[in-house]
Design brief:
mainly alpha, Ferritin-like metal-binding protein YciE
Length: 69
């Protein structure tokens, strides 16, 4: 996969944003009392975790290709 440096930086920025979202969802979930909302937030945590793994894989490919910042 051939990518420019700015694309690598954008993926890194997206991963940082998703990490903040994950932290927020995990923290706020502990404060929620409504079971349905807790379930929705748990689904968000699980989905975000998968997305972060995918972004990590993309970044690892960039590193192997020599496009890492």
């Amino acid at each position: 996969m051939k990518s420019a440096l700015h694309e690598t930086l954008e993926v890194h920025e997206l991963a940082a944003f998703k990490t903040i979202c994950l932290t927020t969802s995990k923290t706020m979930r502990a404060l929620v009392s409504d079971p349905e909302l807790k379930d929705i937030m748990q689904q968000d945590v699980e989905l975000t975790h998968v997305q972060l793994q995918e972004l990590n894989s993309v970044l690892a490919n960039y590193v192997q290709a020599g496009v890492a910042p």
